[in-house]
Amino acid sequence: MLPFLVEHWGNPSSPHGRGRNARSAVDGARDRLATVLGCMPRELTFTSGGTEADNLAVRGVLQRWGAERGRHLVVSAIEHEAVLTTVAQLGERGEAGVTVVPCEADGCVDPERIAAAVRDDTVLVSLMLANNEVGAVQDVHVAAGLARARNPRVLVHSDAVQALGKVPIDLAALDVDLLSVSAHKCYGPKGSGALYARWGTHLTAQLDGGGQERGRRSGTENVAAIAGFACAAELVERERPEQAVRQAALRDGLETAVLEGAPHTRVAARSAVRLPNLSALLVDGASADSLVAALDVAGVEVSSGSACSSGAAQPSHVMVAMGEDPRATALIRLSLGRDTSADEMREAAERIITAVGVALAPRSAPAATFPRR
Fold it and tell me: Does 3-235 carry CATH code 3.40.50.11540?
């Protein structure tokens, strides 16, 4: 990223030398990211992140195709807030009809349920590739096929933000029309993302202006962040096969230790195919906020749901969709990375066990008694 922050700082839309250098960087990054995802460079639109990519997919499809194909949207109950909040607002404003498909207790959405929700006026189905809170990997390919069998004109979108660099992303195999990715989930810079749109899948732009990104996303491109995104995606995909095995083993070891040492603790979505780097622990009878705070003091950084929300204390909608009661059970989400060591995981397990023990201790223990003198 540094050359485009220091030397080649030109505007990629400018015709002079520095502008041409910046344009070359954006075009080169598009080529590199397309190779990672297995698509054509012209099918990628750079955005400010996964949220903008999701919004462009949902709103762009509805506004472009709604009058012709219908204004009904089908989404799963475990989608990221960028999808769920967007479709909820569209529904509240009367701009779309929305069907939210529930998930099973293991955090997986049954593709048959997705298909059953598709109608003649359904314009878009959105099913994420991997859940960002419990890590459950969804059967997007089957859901897409079944949805199109019900309505051949329906478009299929998948939020793959959490999946990039953790599981294989093969666009040909997934057979989706749109797919969202983000840089910061694969060690790239925050504030950079992209939307894949299959060639011929026309969208209505959500930002108007100079017509950058083939008219899909106006605004001067963030050259340094885009260059960093492409490089990070290449590096993490190169390491993915080895890192997936290593991180899954560390995750499993932590979960085994916590389940053995901490009472009333369960692993969310344990029976599902999961991301190798994510563990969601359920602690019956504990407060999520208290556990997060206690572990933070102990040097273990966890969250109680999505790390992409504003920080407001809200129950995990994924946990609720899985049939859990957030008033009676705490969810803590742990993420591993390429630098996480076995020693760190052992230490984290010990501190989690201690924190859970404190959280579940009786609130009013009897006062200590001492012998009289």
Answer: no
